[in-house]
Amino acid sequence: MRTSSLCAFALEALVLFFLSFYAYTAFSKFWDYRLFLVLARFQPGVGAIPMFLKIVFPLAEISLAILLLFSHLRKPVFYIIIISLSIILCYRLFLLVKGVHLPCVCGPLFRGLSEFQHLLFNAVLLVLALGAILLIRSSVTKSPRI
Prior knowledge:
Organism: Filimonas effusa
Structural class: mainly alpha
Keywords: Membrane, Transmembrane, Transmembrane helix
Largest sheet: none
InterPro entries: Methylamine_util_MauE (IPR009908)
Number of helices: 5
Subcellular location: Membrane
Oligomer: single chain
Number of strands: 0
Protein name: Methylamine utilisation protein MauE domain-containing protein
């Protein structure tokens, strides 16, 4: 398998992973919206946001998942993902330093994670998103100019 084919495959795998991840987190919030609102109410900083604005979180996640379907939008979408993951990583680090353990609002698969595990998971997601950007950049530089 050629390097460019391997890079293209890795990029598509990352796109599929992030698309699935963001779709899962969004739909799990919509599926049990009342639980999401209850859990969000106890999150430091997030709890102060008015209830009707909390719909923005799952809508943003599903929007990112949908936008990843369009190859010409992937680079800006991955930059948005990197920014959002960085914010979440800092927030989770803040919770870890403060000694606050609250259930995750990302969905049932992640609720059992400790703050450290969640922090580690977010760091891995951030590295994967950075890897996707590098793959996108390398595919752009290798593609022929017309």
